[in-house]
Amino acid sequence: MFKIVKKNIHIFTIITLCVITILSNRIYSMQENSTIYNFKANSIDGNEVELSDYKGKLIIIVNTASECGNTPQYKGLEELYQLYKAKGLEILAFPCNQFGQQEPGSSEEIKKFCSDNYSVSFPIFEKVDVNGENSHPLFKYLRENAKGLLTNDIKWNFTKFMVNRDGEVIKRYSPKTKPESMIDDIEKNL
Fold first, then answer.
1. Catalytically annotated residues
2. CATH code of the domain occupying 37-189
3. Has this prediction a pTM greater than 0.70?
4. Alpha-carbon distance 173 to 178, whole Å?
5. What is the per-residue pLDDT across 64-73, written as a single tens digit (0 to 9) for each?
6. Residue stretches of the chain with pLDDT short of 70
C-alpha cells in the first residue's frame, strides 16, 4: 500500500511540475507579445519595419484587397488618415489574398493600384496570410486579442483592428464597417 501511495505522489509531482512549466511558458509568451510593438513586418517595398516605430500612435490595422467589394474603403481610410494623422493616427494596410483570391498582384502592382486609384499615403505592407498556420504573427496576435463573432478567424478583407497608443488591441471592426463610422472611436482614443 505504501509503495502505491509513494508512486502516486511521484506521478502527481511530475504532472504538477509539467503543468507549472507549461503555464509559465504561456504567461512568459503572453508577456513577450503583450503589445503590437513586439512585431515586425515588411513594407510593400520589402523593408523590415518594427511596429515599435509607431509607439504613441493610435493605429488602425486592416487586411486589404484590390479586387474586393470592400476595396472602395481605401478612400475612406485615406480620408481618415488625412484628417487625423497630425493628431497621431496611423493606418497600416496588409494586403491579403486568402479571401476569394482578391489580391493576386505583386507588391509593385498593389502599390500602384492603391496610389493610382485611391491616392493612398498611409503605410502598406507586403501581402500576408491573416488566418491559418501560415498567418503573420501580428495577425495571430490580433485574432487572439480581439475576438471575432463565432470564431476568432478573420472573416473577409477589410477587417479592421484599433490599437491604442500603448500598443494594445482595443477593438475589432467587421469588414462591412465603413471607415467613417469609426470616427467617434478614433476621436475618443486620440
1. 68
2. 3.40.30.10
3. yes
4. 9
5. 999 999 999 9
6. 1-33, 148-150
